[in-house]
Write a structure and sequence with these properties.
With about 120 residues, the chain is of the alpha/beta class. Helix content is about 45%, strand content about 20%. The protein has a single domain, classed as Rossmann fold (3-Layer(aba) Sandwich).
């Protein structure tokens, strides 16, 4: 079963992501703030990460920058953010993240992106 880390501080969004991924037969793991997400990425092996940008303790971008600075290998990442601004999408691309979904999410599109990132049909 593929393990997917969800780094999200909003409880309703967390529940939605968790339920969708569990329904799709994945093993979702929760992190409720940026620091917890960063620590879990560093110390565990995940197949995918769903990452919010606006997080307490450490933003999604700070997590990515720190992982790159420390040469820590990380799994594919899907950014899920309420901020749909072009500058955020551009910054995500600069950090090597191509997949960016805006909240509220389109569930079928989100599932499609997850399956693509995991090389599933």
């Amino acid at each position: 079963m593929k393990k997917i880390l969800i780094v999200e501080d909003n409880e309703l969004n967390m529940k939605l992501f968790y339920d969708i991924l569990q329904f799709q037969k994945y093993e979702p793991i929760k992190a409720m703030d940026g620091l917890e997400g960063y620590e879990k990425i560093k110390s565990n092996k995940f197949d995918l990460v769903v990452l919010d940008i606006q997080l307490p303790k450490m933003t999604g971008f700070q997590i990515l920058e720190k992982l790159k600075e420390e040469n820590i290998e990380f799994p594919p990442i899907i950014i899920a953010s309420a901020c749909a601004m072009d500058e955020d999408k551009k910054k995500a691309q600069e950090l090597g993240i191509e997949d960016y979904v805006t909240k509220p999410i389109d569930i079928s599109n989100f599932v499609k992106i997850v399956k693509q990132k995991l090389n599933e049909k």
